[in-house]
Amino acid sequence: MMKGRGMKSTPYAALALAVSYSAPFVAASAAQSAADQVASDQIEAVIVTAQRTGAQNQQKVPIAISVYSGDELSRSVSNTIKDLASRTPNITVSQVLTAAQVYIRGIGSNNVAPGSDPDVTEQIDGIYIARPSAQLQDFIDVDRVEILRGPQGTLYGRNAIGGTINIISRMPSDRFAAENVLTGGNFGLIQEQAYVSGALIPGELQASLSANYESHDPYFHNIVPGGQSVGDASRGGLKGIVRFAPSDQLELISRADWSSYREHPESYSELIARTPFPTLANSIVGNYAEVALNDIQLAIGHIGGVSEEINYHANDWLNIKSLSAYRSDSFSLTNDNDSTELELQLSHQAEQEHGISQEVDFQVNTEKFQGIAGYYFFHDHDRQINTVALPPSVIIPPVAAQFIRAAPLVTSTSNAGFAQGTYQIIPRLAVVVGGRYTSDDKTFAQSANRTSLNPRTNGAELPGSPIAFGLTGHYTGVTPKVGINWQITDEALLYASATRGYKSGGFNFSAISPLIASFAPEKVWSYEAGAKTDWLDHRLRVNLTGFVYDYKNLQVSQLVGPGTFSIGNAASATGKGAELELITKPSANLQLTASLAHLEATYNNYPAASVGSAIIPYVPDKTCTTAPSGSTCTVNAADKYLNGSPRFSGFVGADYNLSINAAYALSLHGDYAYRTRAFFDPSNTLVQSQAGYGLYNAHITLLPTASFWQVELWGKNLADKRYLTTTAASGVVPDGYAGDPRTFGIRMYTSFR
Questions:
Q1: Between 21 and 378, where is the model more confident?
Q2: Which one has a higher pLDDT value, 753 or 551?
Q3: DSSP-derived 3-state class of residue 617
Q4: What are phi and psi of 86, to 5 degrees?
Q5: Do 741 and 715 meet the contact criterion of CB atoms below 8 Å apart?
Q6: 2: how many CB neighbours lie within 10 A of its CB?
Q7: 192 near 230, Cβ under 8 Å?
Q8: Cβ atoms of 149 and 166 closer than 8 Å
Q9: Are 345 and 338 in contact (CB under 8 A)?
Q10: How is 72-129 classified by DSSP, letter by letter?
Q11: 349, burial (CB in 10 Å: exposed 0-12, middle 13-18, buried 19+)
């Protein structure tokens, strides 16, 4: 469905237009000449700060890392971390309600509720983003994104058992700069991205302000007459940075950001198996372009925070850094989660979270030794209210109709000390030794009740209600790392490492009994070896990584009934795989990119994995017991694949710069990403999976030689492939979350300096 639409009359739109002559949330060098675009015949060096001891060439960093510059993000219309998954080896990013669900090499979690933490952490300018509901905020004024694959428990800690996504903002400039990006497209897309930067006191005090606003019509048409379609956008945000450097030794960086949204999300809205009773939804099973919903889905949220970074250059070999931050995240979500036009199940969630963090680092850089040691503190307060209404219906008899409410309160406090160093024992050969000790304390206060929706006893409390109990948990983890790096030549690095990852234990947010409320920490040993090489005078880059994972007490979360999560510890699991990344530049005008990833991530010993009530008919090898409340089924998940773990994924892309004449050049880009079948439940039933699929993207940019503007035509998912990013078995029907359809448009860059 395609609609034309102007910008909505909202405060976000007014704000975005008021900050005129600004910048994309990601850098776009509109004034760069065509000659500069095609000048180099070598692969560009990429500078990262992943090792936290200063800037390094990505090819010298002995970990698996993918980096995307702000300019690259802008040209590819990559707005959130979801847009980077298809081009990054062994990473899967989907959306659960308003939250991110990230898996790297099979490590991840589909539980986004209080009591549990993400397995893949996100840091914005070094500040930990505690809740998955804040991990999908739009990129605003980003210099680059670094995706570190594999456990990062030593340097990053705080449950970085699967990996870390670092989002690094641009620093304010001493010279005035103003940039603006205006995008229009199908589904009525309007996006405004703005940036202004300059010196308040030249050479000493600089500041920048950036803004982002996006609006588009729903991606998924509701076939119910008069029903609200879903998958639209109406969101905006601001970011401000002030840098004060009164001397060569001292630097203070103050940051503040705020964003807000009011949208109708596609939230497990796709029926993925026919119901046994007549519905409109049965007519669109497998469609993934339409939905059948009788209730409005509405998400309203706010995300923001402030931070202060202090850098002190004590001498030539010692730097001291302090990072202090406060962050908050709140949302309210109404969700028609039965995926049909019938009144079967309606849920509501509201969450308010806020936390503080403090980190102090000592960074040492000498000729033979580079290292960091520090202390980290984190405290978080998270309150959520969850309700599920199960009225009398074709599948719920009046006697079983009920209203479920759970209001957990979770507080978390974490203290950690860490150190890691790299010592060059002989020229070109270095050893890495590091470790972190983490102490986590959590408290869990549950308040829940169940009331009848039976017309005869409407509002009466059901047996066992109300429910109130409290629990505490204390967890500790030691995460060492040892490695060896051999810089064979200036263009070839070999490395090997053994790293331990740790994720603290927690609580089932919907638990109605303390006996099933808690789960233990999960741990993993990761063994990794790799090579980073440049060939043919930096015209060919070949990076290869191999890894083996050994999991213990892997935390697995499943939706097993209406409003009920089950989180348990699988006994053990194993992951192994390889990642090949290639870049070649046959000429100054042409660059080719490719990657291929293989992953075998399976449960070793998981004899009683819960089976969601909605998929019980589809699991042939289940074991069930019958009780007055219904059947409870489990499955032996040994040798079955972990969630979100396709065996193969690949990416190919091409960039070609073409000079038209002395005044203009063209930049052409096309790419294709493919991944094989992935399962979203330990049962590995086909109904809870997505078959292999591929996505095509492209963009073409007109680059004037001596001007302040650029124009780009872009398209994503050009073949309009319909697919699922995740699924659920929420207790009524199996349903799924669909990927975005084909989108395309035009983007105008302007820049003033």
A1: 378
A2: 551
A3: helix
A4: -70, -20
A5: no
A6: 9
A7: no
A8: no
A9: yes
A10: HHHHTT--SGGGGGGGSTTEEEEEETTEEEEEETTEE-S--STT---SEEEEETTEE-
A11: buried
Give the separation between CA 298 and CA 264, rounded to whole angstroms: 5
The tokens of 679 are what? 């399962």
Give the single-character DSSP code of 644. Answer: T
First and final C-alpha spacing in the chain: 40
725-748: average pLDDT:
88
Q: Is 148 exposed, middle or buried (0-12, 13-18, 19+ CB in 10 A)?
A: buried
The token pair at 640 is 């079955």
Give the integer Cα–Cα distance in Å for 287 and 270: 8
Pairwise CA distance, residues 73 & 93, whole Å: 16
Q: How far is CA 572 from the centre of its chain?
A: 25
Cα 424 to Cα 62: distance, rounded to the nearest angstrom:
14
Residue 546 pairs with which residues in a beta bridge?
529, 578
Q: What is the pTM of this model?
A: 0.91
Tokens of 445: 């206060």
Residues 6+ apart with CB under 8 A from 115: 408, 410, 442, 444, 506, 507, 508, 509, 567
Q: Using CA atoms, how far apart are residues 669 and 102, in angstroms rounded to an integer?
A: 27
Residue 657: which of 143, 31, 40, 182 has the closest Cα? Answer: 40
Cα dist from 334 to 384, 423, 650, whole Å: 13, 54, 37
Q: In 10 A of CB 226, how many CB atoms?
A: 6
Pairwise CA distance, residues 485 & 192, whole Å: 45
Write the single-letter amino acid at 302. H
Q: Amino acid letter at 218?
A: P
pLDDT in tens, 82-94: 999 999 999 999 8
The closest of 713, 747, 696, 693 to 92, measured between CA atoms, is 693
Query: What pLDDT, in 10s, does the model give residues 664-679?
Result: 999 999 999 999 999 9
